[in-house]
Amino acid sequence: MPVIRTSQAVTHEIHGARFVSYATPLTGSRELCAWRGEIPPRTEAPVHTVSREEIFHLLVGELLITLDGRTERVTAGDTVVVNPGTALGVENPGDQTAISWVTTSIGLEAELADGTRITPPWAN
User: Fold this and answer.
1) Fewest 10 Å CB contacts: which of 23, 25, 58, 62?
2) SS3 of 16, please?
3) How many helices (H) and strands (E) does the chain have?
4) pTM, to two decimals
5) Phi-psi category of residue 51: left, alpha or beta, with phi > 0 → left and psi -120 to 50 → alpha
């Protein structure tokens, strides 16, 4: 039974946010990956299109989530299903760090508006 301790989690920082990965192939997961996202106040991630479904659950704070151009205010306790091929934007307009839990399948890729493809290390 793989148990991933907090001390074993790997932290990555990109576009002003922090991603703390727990479940990955390196920690014993065969199909899914999961991480904690920390989005500081007044941070806006670039819009990107995801290649795999993501389940985005907000634990703390408030965010503006944009899916294919439609923006929703999401508060702690809300869950957003991001389908493959969806353009996703995340913004924290508030004064506190928002904390999320995200789960997806291994192999997720993101494509930025300029065509740049990113393979996040916390999702592979």
Assistant:
1) 25
2) coil
3) 0, 13
4) 0.92
5) alpha
pLDDT, one tens digit per residue, over 9-58 is 999 998 899 999 999 998 999 999 999 999 999 999 999 999 999 999 99
Phi, psi at 8, each rounded to 5°: -95, -10
Side chain identity at 58, as an amino acid letter? L
pLDDT of 65-122, one tens digit each?
999 999 999 999 999 999 999 999 999 999 999 999 999 999 999 999 899 998 888 7
C-alpha distances in angstroms, 115 versus 33, 90, 122?
A: 24, 18, 21
Do the strands 32-39 and 43-44 form a parallel or antiparallel pair, or are they unpaired?
A: unpaired
Query: Would you state the structure tokens that stand for residue 24, as one six-digit string?
Result: 């990955």
* 6 contact partners, CB below 8 Å, separation of at least 6: none
Rounded Cα distance, 3 and 12, in Å: 20
Q: Please state, in angstroms and rounded to a whole number, the distance separating the CA atoms of residues 92 and 12.
A: 18
Q: How far apart are CA 103 and CA 57, in angstroms?
A: 9
